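Structure ticket #2291
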Amino acid sequence: MAGRLFTVVIPRQPDPTNTLGTDILSKHTADGAASPIPAAMATQLQAKLDEGDAKYTLQKDLDKWKEKYTEERNLLLGLDVNQTSNTEGTVLFYVTSIRDFLLGQFRGAERKLGDWGFIVNSPKGKPQVNIPRNPEKLIKLGQGIIRKHEEDDEASILTSFNMAAMATLVTNADTNNGLAAKANRDKEKATQARNIALGTAKGQNRKTVGTAIYLICSIRDILLGIYRGREQSLGDWGFEVNFNSTTPPPPPPGV
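Resolution: structure written out below.
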C-alpha cells in the first residue's frame, strides 16, 4: 500500500505567525462550545498575539519618528536630496564657505585648516580638503569649527560669517540626529519584544514555553489527535497541510 505522508507547516516569521494565530482564534470563536481547543489555551494565545500587535504598532510609530527626525536633520545639514553645498542656511553651506575662506587665508599652509577640524589630504603633493557627506561627520566638523571660533574669541578670523546662525543649525541637527538614533534603538527593542512574544526571536524554537508559536504547536497537536486520518481538516483552522504519497520500500527477503 502507498504510505501517505503530510507536513503541517509552522511559520517562523512574525507576520505569518500572527496570521495563523488569528485564523486559529477566529475558528475557535466561531465553533464556540464545540471547539476542541481549551479556553485557557486560546486566551493565552490571544494575549501573546495582542502583545505582539502592540509592539508592532509601536515599532511602526517609532519608524515614522525616526524618518521625521532624520529628514529634519538632513535639511538642517544640507544633505537632503534636493540640496547642494550652494543651498544657503545649511551647515554644509557654512562649512564649505568657511573651508574656501580658510584655503584663501592659508594658501601654501593648508595644514592649518586642521585647527578647525578639517581633514587635509595631499595626494601627489596637492592639498585637498573634502567636506564629509556623512551626517555624524559633518556635525562633528561643524562643532569643531564653532569650538575654534569661540576659543579664538575676538581673534577669530571668521567674523565675516554668521557664526551664531551656524551654531544654531549645528546644535539643532545634532539634536535631531540623537532623536533619530534613539527612535531607531527603541524601534529595535519593540521589534525584539514582538518577536519574543511570538516566538520568532533568535534563540527561540517551537519548544520555547509561553510564546505564540509554542501555543500554536500545542493546538496543532490537539487537532492532529481530533482529525487523525483527516489531517486536511487542519486547513479549516488556518494551517497549511502538505501531502505527498510514497510507496514504502519492499520488505527484505525472507520476511
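Closing remark: The CA atoms of residues 156 and 172 lie 23 Å apart.
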